[in-house]
Amino acid sequence: xxxxxxxxxxxxxxxxxxKYYEIMKKRGFRKVEKIEPKIMLREVLGLDxxxxxxxxxxxxxxxxxxxxxxxxxxxxxxxTTAVLDGNTxxxxxxxxxVNRGRTNFTLMHEGAHQLLLKVFPECYDCGVKVCRSTEATxxxxxxxxxxxxxxxxxxxLLMPRxxxxxxxxRYYRSQIYGKYGKKRYIAYQKDSFYKLADYLGASHQALxxxxxxxxxxxxxxxxxxxxYSD
Length: 230
Ligand SMILES: [Zn+2]
Fold this sequence. Notes:
Layout: H1 6-26, H2 37-44, E1 48-52, E2 60-64, E3 68-73, E4 80-85, E5 88-92, H3 93-98, H4 100-119, E6 129-132, H5 141-158, H6 161-172, E7 176-180, E8 183-187, H7 190-200, H8 204-213, E9 217-218, E10 225-228
Parallel strand pairs: 1-5
Antiparallel strand pairs: 2-5, 2-6, 3-4, 7-8, 8-10, 9-10
Helix pairs in contact: 1-2, 1-5, 2-4, 4-5, 6-7
């Protein structure tokens, strides 16, 4: 596995995000304000997405692999075999029915594994990536480091800096609190935050972590103020 910093993961993601913007511009979108994971996976990363029941207890959220592989799935309650061809991600269909934010994140997480395999083919084991909910993940330092990379890259792909800032502008436009130089301060409001998370297709937790990672939150003083600059 290649060791990668947060900065390096941001840099690696840039060309893929820019390619996404180019695709949307060709479709007539003058300004892109959100990232659709299915378009990112299918059209930018060239992946196929399939939905199956991946485990009996719902602990497995996604599978992907850099080579041909057969895995067990539990569609219609029966154990059966499905084929991953090296360019396919499997998403748990039960999760997809009930939790859009988490499913979007899982799509990007599986896409991130594939992106790393494509950018650094010699550095990553192309064996099957079994991606579980955090609570269900057994501790393995090497595996957990790779899962951390896929999670971090997923949050960048779903919520690039400029998309988060555009979203803050969109949902907090009428609530500008004040200006200081190039920075503007806006009051945190739960309703606007929830609307923004829903618009971006992200869970509240994922958006909160991403805003913090981008350094857009100034906790205190005063409290509950989001700070950002262009
Ligand atoms: Zn994973």
